[in-house]
Amino acid sequence: MGFAFLMLSLIAFLVYRMEYNLQQELCYAKMSESAQRIASRLTHAHMQGKKLDFSKLKIERGYRYGLYDSDHRPRYTQIDHPVDFSQKYFQHADHLGVVDRSAFGHMGIDYVVVEGARFKEMMHTLLWKVLLVFTLLFTLVALIGYRLAKLFIMPIHNERTRLDTFVKGSTHELNTPITALLMSVNHPQPCSEKNLERIRMSARRISQIYEDLTYLFLRDTQEKPATATPIALDAVLRDQIAVYQPFLQRKGVALSQRIEPMQIVMDTESAVRLCSNLISNALKYTHKGGSIEITLERGMLIVADDGIGIETDKQREIFRRFYRATMHAGGFGIGLDMVRSICDRYAIAIALESEVGKGSRFILTCPKEILVENASV
After folding, report:
1. 153 lies in which domain range?
2. In this structure, are 239 and 366 located in the same domain?
3. Domain count, the chain
4. Contact present, 42 and 103 (Cβ < 8 Å)
5. DSSP code of 332?
6. Minimal CA–CA distance to 267: which of 227, 238, 296?
7. Contact 304, 267 (CB under 8 A)
8. Is residue 128 part of a domain?
9. Own/partner pairs, 40-49, CB within 8 angstroms, 24+ separation
10. Tens of pLDDT along 87-119?
11. What are 179-209's pLDDT values in tens digits?
């Protein structure tokens, strides 16, 4: 009983601390987003030469905000206490707050401060919930405390690790194109053809990241649309090849293609994500000067490369979300998971042939139920 009590106490403490940190991060993130929206509104109004009533800016219910100039003097504020402008995040009494500096002096505003979220009250509620669950668990599972601790802590730790990996990966993926954009904007000759091409490629990359994440979190859990209509998969595939053409040329990767007309019953966004992620994956893991071969014929889509290949024991894992078999290139670990989820939704068989050092070959075979026979394109 004593051992079970100690173990359950540890679990309750860890759960409370992790939830405490998570809720604090979420509160700061929501308030930062609100502050940035206000700063964006100020910037837009200033650039358009419009007047703006500071007291009527929209903000989430329960939040307060203040607008301050470069000397920390309030131009408008709902906050009734001094603000420490040297800190990005602060806590006053039982409230959290953020100081945002993205207004950059537009309309005389240098600091946007957002305060809200009765954090202590939220944490008191959380504490009572944790204590209640702890009491119930101690009563029910005192004799198996050690086993219960393993069951609780390990999944939480693994999920946290996966999410941390995703956050680090997304930061890395976004940092490269954003840095390129900033360098291009500050270039001595921003309108040169080479510089404009760099801007276009960076913008495309950010757009692709946004579309992948939007699809991942908003669309990939949906069922197959009941009203899906036939689309020209060959046209979608050619469009995606055109999108990646500048990246292929920059990396010196040769692309060969054999694409026959094919119509398939699938929503367009899923088809785009399917083709885009297969091409992106092949490009990412192909060496400079390598080659990629894309084939679309007889109900099959094949994307092959002569890149680094995948170890046999990792070939099943690569379709798992956030999993990355190698650190050879950047990424979120979501592309092939997205491909798998789309294939599952439309009953498309997916096979992988790969050998380390020789490349990989993804083979997608469409069922007759979604193929449109005798389609003309």
Report:
1. 149-218
2. yes
3. 3
4. yes
5. -
6. 227
7. no
8. no
9. 40/102, 42/67, 42/103, 42/106, 42/107, 42/109, 42/112, 43/103, 43/104, 43/106, 45/106, 45/107, 46/106, 46/107, 47/106
10. 898 888 778 899 999 888 898 999 999 998 667
11. 767 776 776 776 777 677 667 767 776 776 6
